């Protein structure tokens, strides 16, 4: 993912002054500030990693971007339009372009649905994206994109390994032809031996489809491998953000230095 930095076009996503608190009453801000004045931009084909300790606000940021949680203030411009101020029906239409892949594919895939049903579900919610007659062929093509054979379409989640399930979750996220994938710890629930397969699929897809990723991860060596830019989150704020190599080689913030020092593989490399 690191090798096409020069090709970036105009920003796909521009986030400005995003803020989300919890514990407020009657629509007022609450005392728990989970996302505090976050701003960043994301280009097509770019991978932004968001790193930080548990509780720093990474998942809340992801959910607020997608309007799964209501922001207190700020804006999220997708191709220049503020998602936070769109009417609900229009937001629903735009959602197809911003999809999320969760940490645990077992929890995110309904156990009683076949792979074909799981991949087709988004087309029921967004009719017109893929005609009914074209769906079987599109399912095969999506499975091929995540390196799974066609016959997996009749499998149920419990007939697959964790890595295969996560690849199905990725195929499903791609069904609506999104421009941005928010990947919330996409491989941390998987055995180390299969993590690399899933990462390879994600890197190939990014290149082929010019996808933008927001990659939430605790795994700093992996972040260094896949991300163009890194944002370091602490107590709801981006305390440091910049090109991956700059942040890793010359961290300017004390919190970033502590985080890097606690990652053994990176400390040894340094
Ligand atoms: N629904 C909620 N109600 C109240 N507080 C919440 C809620 N969701 C999150 N928080 C708080 O917001 C802060 C950020 O939490 P969040 O889950 O976004 O962090 P995170 O960085 O994603 O953590 P992790 O890596 O463990 O997933 C924490 O202090 C958390 O307790």
Q: What does this 3D model show about the protein?
A:
- It is a peripheral membrane protein.
- One of its GO terms (molecular function) is ATP binding.
- InterPro entries: AAA+_ATPase, ABC_transp_ATP-bind, ABC_transporter-like_ATP-bd, ABC_transporter-like_CS, P-loop_NTPase.
- The chain is of the alpha/beta class and 270 residues long.
- It has one domain (5-269): P-loop containing nucleotide triphosphate hydrolases (Rossmann fold), CATH 3.40.50.300.
- Helix content is 37%, strand content 23%.
- The strands form 2 sheets. Strands 6-7-8-3-9-10 form a 6-stranded mixed beta sheet, sandwiched between helices. The chain has a 4-stranded antiparallel beta sheet with strand order 2-1-4-5, covered by helices on one side.
- A hairpin with a 2-residue loop joins strand 9 (229-234) and strand 10.
- It is globular, with a radius of gyration of 19 Å.
- The model has no long low-confidence stretch (mean pLDDT 92).
- The structure holds adenosine-5'-triphosphate.
Please supply descriptive tags for the structure shown above.
270 residues, alpha/beta, Rossmann fold, six-stranded mixed beta sheet, 10 strands, binds adenosine-5'-triphosphate
């Amino acid at each position: 993912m690191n090798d096409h930095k020069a090709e970036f076009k105009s920003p796909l996503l521009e986030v400005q002054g995003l803020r989300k608190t919890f514990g407020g009453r009657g629509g007022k801000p609450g005392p728990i500030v989970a996302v505090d004045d976050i701003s960043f931009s994301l280009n097509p084909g770019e991978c932004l990693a968001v790193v930080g300790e548990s509780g720093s606000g990474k998942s809340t940021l992801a959910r607020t971007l997608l309007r799964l949680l209501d922001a207190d203030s700020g804006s999220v411009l997708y191709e220049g339009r503020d998602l936070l101020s769109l009417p609900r029906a229009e937001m629903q239409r735009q959602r197809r372009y911003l999809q999320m892949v969760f940490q645990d594919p077992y929890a995110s895939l309904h156990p009683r649905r076949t792979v074909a049903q799981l991949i087709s579900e988004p087309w029921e919610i967004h009719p017109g994206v893929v005609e009914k007659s074209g769906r079987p062929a599109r399912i095969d093509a999506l499975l091929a994109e995540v390196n799974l054979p066609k016959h997996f379409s009749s499998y149920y989640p419990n007939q697959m390994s964790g890595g295969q399930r996560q690849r199905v979750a990725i195929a499903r996220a791609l069904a609506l032809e999104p421009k941005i994938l928010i990947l919330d710890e996409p491989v941390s629930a998987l055995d180390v031996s299969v993590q690399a397969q899933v990462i390879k699929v994600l890197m190939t897809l990014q290149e082929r489809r010019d996808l933008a990723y927001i990659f939430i991860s605790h795994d700093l060596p992996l972040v260094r491998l896949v991300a163009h830019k890194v944002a370091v989150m602490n107590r709801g704020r981006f305390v440091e953000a910049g090109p991956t190599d700059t942040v890793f080689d010359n961290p300017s913030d004390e919190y970033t230095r502590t985080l890097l020092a606690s990652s053994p593989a990176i400390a040894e490399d340094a």
